[in-house]
Automatic annotation (TrEMBL):
Protein family (similarity comment): Belongs to the glycosyltransferase 8 family.
CDD domains xref list: GT8_like_1 (cd06429)
Molecular function via GO: polygalacturonate 4-alpha-galacturonosyltransferase activity
Pathway recorded for this protein: Glycan metabolism; pectin biosynthesis
Identification of the protein by name: Hexosyltransferase
InterPro entries (alphabetical): GAUT, Glyco_trans_8, Nucleotide-diphossugar_trans
Coiled coil: none
Keyword terms of this UniProt record: Glycosyltransferase, Membrane, Transferase, Transmembrane, Transmembrane helix
Length: 744
């Protein structure tokens, strides 16, 4: 049996190995060739002297093998401990005894190549092994121990060459495999030594540090698998990056959508792209200079107390300089370029003042006094702000005033025959849908009428009863004569022409003429009123002086021939067809309205004075409030219950305003107590004039949206996020609107 061996080591650099090659040759000579020459010579001698014993060797092969094993075990015991031998024995219990044939069969080394022998025939190999000569066995057994020791020394030198980076890992492994092959093939060691050699190979391979050329022996299949794994990793990484990009894009889009909902009127008009928004501490210098001025004022007072006049004058000078530099600056970008120098100089003055004047008790007392003064100033400014915001909310914009004046002039230039509206026969037809709208704002009234007609299924069945004051009577008529609402019926009246509405019949008119009421309303003219403020500034509202606001309590008198009527405020927008409201069963109640109470607010105790026995005895403080703005009234039941009489009774009792403050909602809650039928909330959504956090879906699903509050949609105070619901029903290209500079 022949084995082909190769000692060639491909890919090694001759320059790197020049010095180590001589050492390897010397080691191989002493460890391999010398023992080989010795043992071969001795074997020839033994062979010539024992020719006659060859025939008996085959018959006693099994006995000789047992003798060899005993001899090998004697050598092994001197090398290995008992624990190692036990491990070897247990590892071969299932696989059978280790032999050269098992290694050749399993083809452990790529350098082994068997020619001319069928490796699958284990029995044949065993038979050939039995026929080995006794002389060869004796030769091997006598020199095996010496040869194994030399081989181990050779391997240690190879490992040292590898650790010093002088021998590539692949070359070292190749030399070790070739040495083991030679050992097994030519020397014919006992099985236990063969096992030892192969185990040592595996241990050295596992301990040898890997390098780049260790992969040179990878098979094409391993390379393909490695490339496939790398491709999968790259694909997964790209997929994760793409998912991150998509997530970031979604977050950015969501942030943009949320930013569109931010109202500038409420949160302040600002832009993150302004210069002062470049960093989060854009006002740090301004705040530091203000803090310096506060401490300078503290030391100024202490210097005056301790007669430090030089320091007093210096502090006064630098306080003025800081005030001049700060001016109206609120961010660092607005400061004068000399601000850092002024701030540094002020710091030096404060440092000297601290050394000369610092007294913990005095400084604490002065800071507390300054804090109390600032708190009082803030409260005063808040009252002034409240008064001014109320005033701004009740003023008429120049554009709307211009529109009213132009329309009024053109109306009175019309001939009498052209001042009449068509379809006047529908005004008292109870089978049609009638609306009551009381307003002195032409533009607001036009939005209410236009939005109702646009969303109505059949405009010819809708009748609008508009009531205004004499100042806006001509303008209201002229607008709807020029802009008729499709086939709907329009009728405009002047509240001042209602002769029955006088002070002898109406308690409100009588109270408005009293000296006490005039004092209450016009108290703001007092010099100290604006600075001192008042808890009821909200109720000093010009609309409370107009009977248009109280006319809602006289609907049967204004429209005596109607059975049902829908009352609308002029600050609402209709978004759906409202005809279904006339078919709502009110269950014998007078008023159909949407309730506004929550867990603890908008209940009766918010509007009425329950410390008064009349209120406490007749009403429940936890009763739910409701809203004016869109109310369906049953005028037949109204007349039966004498709702107007109930209103008069309680209005007379409140002449001194002890039951409620001014307004129409508190007397409405009292008048329609237990006579109000709650409607579904989708009919009427409120708060667009004061609440910036109303859900968009809630607004868009509502039949009517109400701009109750100070931020009316026709004012600059309006919240921009809600204004579009109102402006889309205005034609800003109308000549009158363009002439009065009215735009979105």
């Amino acid at each position: 049996m022949a084995l082909k061996r190769g000692f060639s080591i491909s890919g090694m650099n001759k320059n790197r190995r020049g010095r180590s090659r001589l050492r390897i040759v010397v080691v191989i000579f002493f460890c391999v060739l010398s023992p080989l020459i010795f043992f071969v010579g001795r074997g020839l001698y033994i062979t010539s002297s024992s020719t006659n014993q060859n025939l008996n060797a085959a018959g006693s092969g099994k006995q000789q093998l047992n003798w060899r094993e005993r001899l090998a075990l004697q050598h092994v015991k001197s090398i290995f401990s008992k624990e190692v031998i036990d491990v070897i024995t247990s590892s071969t219990a299932d696989l059978g005894p280790l032999s050269l044939d098992s290694f050749r069969k399993n083809n452990l080394s790529a350098s082994w190549k068997v020619t001319g022998v069928d490796n699958t025939s284990v029995e044949d190999n065993a038979a050939s092994e039995v026929t080995m000569t006794h002389d060869c066995h004796a030769l091997v057994e006598s020199g095996a121990k010496y040869y194994v020791v030399c081989t181990i020394v050779f391997w240690v030198l190879l490992l040292f060459q590898r650790q010093t980076k002088k021998l590539p890992c692949s070359s070292m492994k190749h030399l070790m495999v070739e040495t083991t092959t030679f050992l097994v093939d030519k020397i014919l060691l006992p099985d236990i030594f063969i096992w030892f050699c192969l185990s040592a190979n595996l241990v050295v391979f596992s301990l040898s540090p890997a390098d780049d050329d260790s992969r040179s022996g990878d098979s094409p299949a391993n390379l393909a698998r490695r490339q496939l794994r790398e491709k999968r990793r790259e694909k997964r990484a790209a997929q994760l990056l793409r998912q991150d990009d998509e997530a970031i894009a979604r977050l950015e889009n969501a942030a943009i959508e949320r930013s569109k909902l931010v109202d500038g009127a409420v949160l302040g008009k600002y832009s993150i792209w302004r210069k002062e928004m470049d960093n989060e501490n854009s006002d740090s210098t301004v705040r530091l200079m203000r803090d310096q001025m506060i401490m300078a004022r503290v030391y100024l007072t202490i210097a005056k107390m301790k007669s430090k006049f030089d320091l007093l004058q210096e502090l006064q000078t630098w306080i003025k300089e800081s005030q001049r530099v700060l001016a109206d600056s609120s961010v660092d970008s607005d400061l004068n370029p000399s601000a850092p120098e002024k701030m540094k100089a002020m710091g030096q003055v404060l440092s000297r003042a601290r050394e000369q004047l610092y007294d913990c008790k005095l400084v604490t007392g002065k800071l507390r006094a300054m804090l109390q003064t600032a708190d009082e100033q803030v409260r005063s400014l808040k009252k002034q702000s409240t008064f001014l915001s109320q005033l701004a909310a009740k003023t008429v914009p120049n554009g709307i005033h211009c529109l009213s004046m132009r329309l009024t002039i053109d109306y009175y230039l019309l001939p009498l025959e052209k001042r009449k509206f068509p379809r006047s026969e529908n005004l008292e037809n109870p089978n049609l849908y009638h609306y009551a709208l009381f307003s002195d704002n032409v533009l607001a009234a036009s939005v209410v009428v236009n939005s109702t007609i646009v969303n109505a299924k059949d405009s010819s069945k809708h009748v609008f009863h508009l009531v205004t004051d004499k100042l806006n009577f001509g303008a209201m008529n002229m607008w709807f004569l020029l802009n008729p609402p499709r086939k709907a019926t329009i009728h405009v009246e002047n509240v001042d022409e209602f002769k029955w509405l006088n002070s002898s019949y109406c308690p409100v008119l009588r109270q408005l003429e009293s000296a006490a009421m005039k004092e209450y309303y016009f108290k703001a003219n007092h010099p100290t009123s604006l600075s001192s403020g008042s808890s009821n500034l909200k109720y000093r509202n010009p609309k409370y002086l107009s009977m248009l606001n109280h006319l809602r309590f006289y609907l049967p008198e204004v429209y005596p021939k109607l059975d049902k009527i829908l009352f609308l405020d002029d600050d609402i927008v209709v978004q759906k067809d409202l005809t279904k409201l006339w078919s709502v069963d009110l269950h014998g109640k007078v008023n159909g309205a949407v309730e506004t109470c929550g867990e603890s607010f908008h209940r009766f105790d918010k509007y009425l004075n329950f410390s008064n026995p009349h209120i406490a005895r007749n009403f429940d403080p936890n009763a739910c409030g409701w809203a004016y703005g869109m109310n369906i009234f049953d005028l037949k039941v109204w007349k039966k219950k004498d709702i107007t009489g109930i209103y008069h009774k309680w209005q007379n009792m409140n002449e001194d305003r002890v039951l409620w403050k001014l307004g129409t909602l508190p007397p409405g809650l009292i008048t329609f107590y237990n006579l109000t039928h709650p409607l579904e909330k989708t009919w009427h959504v409120l708060g667009l004039g004061y609440n910036p956090s109303i859900d968009r879906s809630e607004i868009e699903s509502a039949a009517v949206v109400h701009y109750n509050g100070n931020m009316k949609p026709w004012l600059e105070l309006a919240m921009t996020k809600y204004r579009s619901y109102w402006t889309k029903y205005i034609k800003y290209d109308h000549p009158y609107l363009r002439n009065c500079n009215l735009s979105e």
